[in-house]
């Protein structure tokens, strides 16, 4: 047991590097870079303005210092240009017709073209053929489509109940 205590004391006295204390490197760390510089967010003191800390007065009976009058700067602050209001956007006839019928004029499909997308009133309702829905009858779920038109490839049921794949881009 004594051997372990002696060994522990000997190992505790050892240091890596031959007993020399490691000194910080003068070069910048390639991973972290230079040390972080800290700056104040307050405005810098004006030249000639009194500093915040003044040395103690040698004679307490002396007259208190008079405040320095602020001198107007030679350059007045730049004026902010007036905000230009954007004129109202002119709607295309197709877009106007879409909005009037309750649709939403939006980018649709892979080509990125504009199209009128309308929400269906019977979305999610059970169906067996196209005539059961305002829009299309989805074959996989046997439910009415939530929007029209359906972009991409979708399995739908026709008016006679036959399943077909409809692809719209």
Describe the structure.
The structure is a single chain. This protein has 169 residues and is an alpha+beta fold. It has a domain at 93-168. It is built from 2 helices and 7 strands. The protein has helices spanning 2-13, 93-100; strands at 104-108, 113-119, 137-138, 143-144, 147-148, 152-157, 163-168. The strands form 2 sheets. A 4-stranded antiparallel β-sheet has the order 4-3-6-7, with no helix packed on it. Strands 1-2-5 form a 3-stranded antiparallel β-sheet. Strand 6 (152-157) and strand 7 (163-168) form a beta hairpin. It is flat. The termini are far apart.
In one word, what is the shape?
flat
**What is Rg?**
40 Å
How is the largest sheet built, in terms of strand order? Answer: 4-3-6-7
- The oligomeric status of these chains comes to single chain
Structural class by helix and strand composition: alpha+beta
What's the helical proportion of residues?
10-25%
Offer a concise description of the structure.
The protein is of the alpha+beta class. 12% of the residues lie in helices and 18% in strands. It has a domain at 93-168.
Which labels suit this protein?
169 residues, single chain, 2 helices, 3-stranded antiparallel beta sheet, 4-stranded antiparallel beta sheet, flat, alpha+beta
